[in-house]
Amino acid sequence: MAKRKKTVTPRNDTKVASIVVGLFVTAIILFFIFTKAKEPHKEQIPAPVPVENIKPVQAVPGPSVEPQPFEGIPGAGGKIAIIIDDWGQTMANCKYLRDIREPLAVSILPGLRHTKDIANCAKLNQKLTMLHLPLEALHNYDFYPPDYIIKTTMSPGLVSKIVDEDLAQLPSIEGVNNHMGSKATGDRSLMKIIFKKIKKRGLFFVDSMTAHNSVCTGLAGEMGLAFGKRDVFLDNINTREAIIKQFMVLAQKARRRGYAVAIGHDRHLTMQVLKEEIPLMEHQGFEFVSIKELLRNR
Q: How far apart (Å, rounded) are the C-alpha atoms in residues 25 and 31?
């Protein structure tokens, strides 16, 4: 009897494999969708602006708004002393000495119509006064009376006489800085005569830094004279934009070194910008001090 042949049933292996793969892929997709839904949305946080790039805000005319008190450490940004030169020709800006409550040094030219009046105004408003001593410049195209400017060609006796007369006009001053002087401050013999007079009266001297060859720093150190020098001129360019830009430079120097000295001039625009910018800089952590205090405690 012949053996029956086994009937072969087609296998469904391929079909089963496809189903398994499909289920696996679906599971993976569902897993990623579920995970993404639970993941919190991440905001794009901009990088912090470097402190050095923070600019003083220019005041806009309108209702005055008192700046909010600074919540950090006063003086954390650095200490700043400001000297305003060329007082004595007019009383027009005396009102700013009342309006600006922070310390300012008022440097007064000798022999002018309002020399003593400005000294009285500064004293009334508790502002430190200085003599703005006229010294010879390398190039000067302005007219000055004879023997008003101390020159390198003068005899020691004449230099001493002029310094004594200028100091006598302003008995309440606490310091001196130079008016012009790009030539005189480079003359060691001349500056030694002047420094002896200043030290004898217990005054300090601030070099306005009108020349790069000034001998004042080294000479003051040798003589034991209280001394400082200007870091920034605020208003060599007499526009609002330029003055505000110089305040930014001043802020950078004070923050980097811990202190800085600025010099401006007795002009309406300069005083108006000072009135606007000082409170804003205080809000950024800068402390305004008198030049005398700065020289004593820097």
A: 10
For 157-269, where are the E strands, in sequence order? Answer: 175-180, 204-207, 227-229, 232-233, 259-265
The kind and range of the H/E element at 233 are strand 232-233
**How far apart, in whole angstroms, are the C-alpha atoms of residue 230 and residue 220?**
15
- Mention every residue, 6+ apart, whose C-beta is less than 8 A from residue 260: 78, 79, 80, 81, 231, 232, 250, 253, 254
Per-residue pLDDT of the chain (298 residues; tens, 9 = 90+): 444 444 444 445 555 455 545 665 555 555 544 444 444 333 333 333 333 333 333 333 434 434 444 444 555 789 999 999 999 999 999 999 999 999 999 999 999 999 999 999 999 999 999 999 999 999 998 999 999 999 999 999 999 999 999 999 999 999 999 999 999 999 999 999 999 999 999 999 999 999 999 999 999 999 999 999 999 999 999 999 999 999 999 999 999 999 999 999 999 999 999 999 999 999 999 999 999 999 998 7
Tell me how many degrees the CA angle 125-292-168 measures, rounded to the nearest 5: 70
Q: Tokens for 49?
A: 């602006």
Yes or no: say if 108 and 84 are a contact pair by the CB < 8 Å rule. no
Going from the C-alpha of 182 to that of each of 132, 135, 139, the distances in angstroms are 14, 8, 8
pTM over 0.90: no
Tokens in use for 69? Answer: 């008190």
d(C-alpha 221, C-alpha 202), whole Å: 15
Phi first, then psi: give them for residue 261, nearest 5 degrees: -120, 130
Show the tokens assigned to 128. Answer: 């430190």
- Quick one: which of 123, 129, 130, 88 has its CA closest to 109? 88
Tokens of 105: 């040094």
Domains of the chain: 79-297 (3.20.20.370)
Element counts in the chain: helices (H) and strands (E): 9, 9
